[in-house]
Amino acid sequence: MGGFCWVRLRSEKLLIGWLQMRITYEDNKVLTLIYIYIREFDGSIVSTLPDVRCEMIFDKDDNWIGIEVFNDAFDNNKIKLPNLKKQYNAIQNELFEQSESKLFMLFDKNNSEDYRKEVSCNIDYNKVNGLQGIELILTCFDIKMEVADQFIIKT
What we know:
The protein has 155 residues and is an all-beta fold. The protein has one domain. Helix content is 0%, strand content 43%. Strands 1, 2, 3, 4, 5, 6, 7, 8 and 9 form a nine-stranded antiparallel β-sheet that branches. A hairpin with a 4-residue loop joins strand 2 (22-27) and strand 3.
């Protein structure tokens, strides 16, 4: 198991044309930028909920297998999480659940959780279609991405 990674905040453009989970990441040795796209960019102005509490979920082999986002920020304020306004349909074997109090995602619903790491994230959304994506900025990157690999957009 690697050390704790602190997460900071950042904005990113979104891709067009799909309603399914996709992940981009860039590891530049100082920061690792991870963005989990939930849906396509629709051209509407994006708002961001910053510094939201979430947990990265790992299996016994230290593979990153999912994320759970909670309805509170690190400043202890409660927030209303934006929902995806269209039905999310799994394209692989992923699991996506949402409510006003949490978002829960597993990259493969057959993986078993072993432990979690608490981090901070940004939640991007708009009023037209709701939840758009989740962004993480890690100050260290010792995460195995094998389970998430099926959703990673290779650039």
